[in-house]
Amino acid sequence: MIRIRTLLGHLKNRHVRGMGVLPMCLRAVPALQIRAFHDRDGRETHGRDARATAFQRFLLTVAAISTAMLGGCTGGTQKVSSTPPPPVDEVDRIIPLISPSPVNWDGRPGADGLEVCVHFFRYSQGLPVTVRGSLEFVLYEGVIGVKDLPSAKPFRSWRFSSEELKAHRIRRMMGWGYAMRLPWGNAPPTASAVTLLVRYTPLKGRPVSSDPTAIPLSTR
Q1: How many domains is the chain partitioned into structurally?
Q2: pLDDT given at position 22
Q3: Confidence bin at 220 (pLDDT 50/70/90)
Q4: The 3-state secondary structure of the chain, one letter per residue
């Protein structure tokens, strides 16, 4: 069973306004949380048959956006500035848009890592904001739920300081965000799926984490 979490909840609360959201989501699949199942050997699988295809996730994305908009998401379209908005310390929500499967960058056999675009939101503002703090990506092998995160062992992590994040700013139809590649080098994960958690730490204030996102390991 696949449950759409981050983008749908944000749209229902009207933190993302305007039809500019839809084209963005047609280019990148938002964070989905996949409920874990166990096979006969006790290993975690994801989905009914352990294969969550990009096309299925695409259809669920469009359905979620349509449902949210029909459910009362109002407000006029806000224009995205040609320059980044002033950075803020605290944010209320993180929405990561993650490649639906690992990506091959060098043309040689085997996936090289993940591509991610992260947007930060404050409840008081309709468009995404830029940030002053640092950003960390934590990758786990297998499908890891929220309740299992404290005891799970990270497979790999990447950290971007406030200064480093400036080089990753990107302007999209949805608004300003941060795009980065997360390479795992010569030690790729061996599980059939991985789980990615995004954690933001402000200079002052409370840290905020995304929902854990499960990604099947089929190279595109």
Answers
A1: 1
A2: 35
A3: low
A4: CEEECHHHHHHHCCCCCCCCHHHHHHHCCECEEECEEECCCCCEEECCCCCCCHHHHHHHHHHHHHHHHHCCCCCCCCCCCCCCCCCECCCCEEEEEECCCCECCCCCCCCCEEEEEEEEECCCCCCCECECCEEEEEEEECCCCHHHHHHCCCCEEEEECHHHHHCCEEEECCEEEEEEEEECCCCCCCCCEEEEEEEEECCCCCCEECCCEEEECCCC
**Which domain does 54 fall in, by range?**
2-216
**pLDDT tens track for 167-203:** 999 999 889 999 999 999 999 999 999 999 999 999 9
